[in-house]
Structures are given as structure tokens and as C-alpha cells.
Amino acid sequence: MEYDEKLARFRQVHLNPFNKQQHEQGAGEEAPGITSQARLPELPPGEPEFRCPERVMDLGLSEDHFARPVGLFLASDVQQLRQAIQECKQVILDLPEHSEKQKDAVVRLIHLRLKLQELKDPNEDEPNIRVLLEHRFYKEKSKSVKQTCDKCNTVIWGLIQTWYTCTGCYYRCHSKCLNLISKPCVRSKVSHQAEYELNICPEAGLDSQDYRCAECRAPISLRGVPSEARQCDYTGQYYCSHCHWNDLAVIPARVVHNWDFEPRKVSRGSMRYLALMMSRPVLRLREINPLLFNYVEELVEIRLRQDILLMKPYFITCREAMAARLLLQLQDRQHFVENDEMYSVQDLLDTHTGRLGCSLAETHTLFAKHIKLDCERCQAKGFVCELCREGDVLFPFDSHTSVCADCSAVFHRDCYYDNSTTCPRCARLTLRKQSLFREPGPDLDA
User: Fold this and answer.
1) Alpha helix ranges (H) inside 51-171
2) What are phi and psi for residue 105, nearest 5 degrees?
3) pLDDT 10s digits, 243-268
4) Helix, strand, coil percentages, rounded to 5, for the chain
5) pLDDT tens per residue, range 343-364
6) How far apart are CA 123 and CA 214, in angstroms?
7) Per the confidence metrics, is the pTM higher than 0.70?
8) 246, exposed or middle or buried, with CB in 10 Å at 0-12, 13-18, 19+?
């Protein structure tokens, strides 16, 4: 009986929140449907009173668990999705060109189209396309390739398990792990914020991270309890073993400052970001470290980029060159025909190994052969030195010539500097302008 009395007192203290309305009735009134036998026994004298009507057991009902998740599309069927796509297109056309809002609207349009493609086949248990946190997951059909799930850090058995790969950042995971993903796609960061951390391992310490992983916020420590803290050499932050797999990557800051290409350990997120940024020309090497060209001999060979820029006007005005598509020889490095300032990490890596110098020399020889020997139209666009009027036809990309910065005339380098860097063409143009705008003098005969 003592046990029953204690259980009854416990139930009386911890009220059921769904029956709260009954307990709010008067003290002398009884709830309907409750008989006199169902009354709780009276507490014996001397026992402490534990009744607390105001206290209600916390079941989490104060939180809004039925709120719409962030990023969830309002459209739930194909018709609503198509209407949302048309509205998003109109918003893109109304927004200013190249604005941040327009870029975000384009990303939303892509997600709406992928969601529409996912809903077109409702009978399929596991669709071929899934869109989560800006990831664009496609179901893999390969069964024999051994992969590791980036979410649960276990092996993906392709013969018996379904798995997906993000086409943007190549994030791989089981189909059962898709709804547990908390890391957004790195491709969106590359599209909106294409820049490197150029400080070498900017470490701030574990205390600045509150002794938690910089990505998943799991507790970590240097002693390995509860989890080992692993430092990323690119960001300088510490990560847990699930977010840092000791992957190796070349660090851009060490390359531009120390010409150091030794791979260092980085986190999974940094590894994907560096892999996507490898071929993007975002480094202004002369502004970041101008002294690097004085100490690295391999960078001297890359100055052929300046000659290629001087050859470009010949090709864009030549029908034969456009038909032969000579400029497509540099389609993998399109920035080489746009400027001579921007570099990518892949350019610097190929320069270090010597591959870029050899390929540029071959391309330079091919371009010069077309201009000087193969094409008569390009030959007719050459120059004659107006200082000595001797020698062969000159071109601005020849190593023994100098080009006037004002009128783009070409001279022998020795002749140009012997005449105190005075361009005769610019001098004639100056005299001609002075004669045209000279005021008439007084009429002496009058």
C-alpha cells in the first residue's frame, strides 16, 4: 500500500498537461466522469505537501516543431513548381545585372528546376536527383567502385547500398544519410566568394573555438578526449576526426609567399574548396609578392604571356587564324589571352614542374610562325624601324624590338634607346597638332 500511495502522490505532483483543464476547475468541483473511487488518497498527517498545480511536465510543446524548415520550397506539386519557376525567371529579368540578388535568384531557379525533375516520377522510391543545402545529388549506378561516405565515415557497399554524389563538390553519402547532411555545398562558396586565405596557417587556438570542431561543433581536445583535434593548415582551425581525414593539399599562401608546393594536411571542406579553386585565376602575383619574380627562375619563362597578348590583335583580324581557331590552343587557360596579371594555383604548380614553360614555348612558336611566315595578311601588318629604316620587318612581340606606349609604333631596341627614347611618329603628330591649332599671326603687309 505504501508503494501505491507514493505512486499516487507522484502522479498528483506531475500533472498531465493534456488534462490541465480538468485541474483548473474549482477545488470543490469534480471533473465529469471521475467517480468517488477514483479519488486520490489523502496524505497522512505529517507528510510534506508536494502538490504544485502550476508545474506542468515539459514535453517541448512550447517550441514550434511544426514551423516550415528554412529553404523548403512552398510549391508541393508540379503545377505550383512550374508557376514558381516562371515567377523566378521574371524576378531575374527585373533585377540589376550582375547583382548579388540576381545571383541568388539564379541559384533558386536551379533548385526549383531540379525539384521539378525530382517530382516528375513520384512512383520511384529513390529518385535520381536530390537537392539539399545547395547540393545537387545524383544517384550513382556504379556498383564495383569502393567509396567512403562523407557523413558517417563508413564504406559504401555499392552492390547492396544506394549512394549519391554531388555534382558540384563531389560529396558522397549513403541514401540513408542524405537527410542528416548539415554541410552546405562548397560550389556555392566558390561561385560567390572566389578568393584564397593568403595568411599562412592563421591559427587562433582551441579556446577561440570554444574547444569545439570548427565545422560540426563537436567537442574536441588536443589530448584526444572526447575526440582528437586536428588542425587544417589552410584555415588554421581545428576539426574533429569526422570533418578532418588528414587529406593532403597544396596551400596557396605557402606558394605565393615561399614558393612551397609541399602538400599539407587539410580538412574535408578545405580540400574540396581548394580542389574547385585550383584552376580559377584569382591570384594577382605581382601585387601579392612582386619580389617572387626576381628569385624564381621558372617565372621568367611565363613572360611569354605578354607576347601572346601582343599576337592576339593579329588573330582576331585574320580570317585564316579565326578559321583555324588558333586561340583555342589556350582554351584550358583562357585568362592567358585576356591579361598577363592573373594566375591560378594550377598555373604556378605547372610552372614549378616545368610543364607550363614548355607548352607556352610551343604555342608561342606556332603563333609566330603563322604571323611571320604562313599568313600574308599578318605579314603586311608588320613595322619598319623609322629611326634607321634598315633590317627586316618588325613585330611587337620580337625580342629585339621596343614598342612606343603612346602610338604603338615598333622600333629596334638599340635605335629607340640611342635616340633618347623619342618616338619620331609621336613627334610628327605633335607638330601636326600644333600647326593645326596655331593662332594666325599679325598681317605685316597691312
Assistant:
1) 78-94, 100-119
2) -65, -35
3) 898 989 999 999 999 999 999 999 98
4) 40, 10, 45
5) 999 999 999 998 888 888 888 8
6) 40
7) no
8) exposed
